[in-house]
């Protein structure tokens, strides 16, 4: 079982599958492409020191998109007792789920369609907007979704 890296380290085993047990279709596997490197070959010092878990570009792009589209703050509402900035939250979600990047961009398309349907919509939490759209996109694209317990860990 892989160890948990991130802001919260649950005391129970992770409900997420490690990278080796994820179906090839979820990892974007193509027979002519070289197989992906296992996570264990990455230097541990790099993996622990990167607050974006290797997803900095995608997480910053998503955060800018959501904050611009819905005029929401980078920090969650004070009622959530969390002070994780939106790009770090998104990077953690991408890291924990190990879903294909198409799921991430499908989530952004869903949010764009929501804004087009309701132009006056504003967001009080980009965190909630992202995780909701990410869950829906995962269900539509993968049809092999995680449990509610798993999503609660992703959503911190």
Automatic annotation (TrEMBL):
CDD domains in the cross-refs: CYCLIN_ScPCL1-like
GO CC annotation terms, alphabetical: cyclin-dependent protein kinase holoenzyme complex; nucleus
InterPro entries for this protein: Cyclin-like_sf, Cyclin_PHO80-like
Coiled coil: none
GO molecular function (one): cyclin-dependent protein serine/threonine kinase regulator activity
Chain segments carrying region Disordered: 1-52
Protein name: Cyclin N-terminal domain-containing protein
Organism: Rhizopogon vesiculosus
């Amino acid at each position: 079982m892989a160890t948990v890296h991130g802001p919260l380290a649950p005391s129970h085993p992770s409900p997420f599958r490690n990278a080796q047990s994820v179906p090839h279709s979820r990892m974007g596997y193509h027979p002519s492409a070289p197989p992906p490197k296992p996570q264990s070959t990455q230097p541990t010092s790099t993996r622990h020191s990167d607050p974006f878990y290797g997803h900095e570009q995608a997480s910053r792009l998503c955060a800018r998109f959501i904050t611009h589209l819905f005029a929401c703050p980078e920090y969650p509402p004070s009622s959530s007792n969390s002070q994780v900035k939106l790009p770090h939250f998104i990077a953690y979600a991408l890291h924990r789920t190990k879903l294909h990047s198409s799921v991430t961009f499908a989530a952004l398309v869903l949010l764009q369609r929501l804004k087009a349907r309701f132009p006056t919509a504003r967001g009080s939490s980009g965190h909630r907007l992202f995780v909701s759209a990410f869950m829906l996109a995962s269900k539509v694209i993968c049809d092999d979704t995680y449990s509610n317990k798993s999503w609660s860990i992703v959503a911190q």
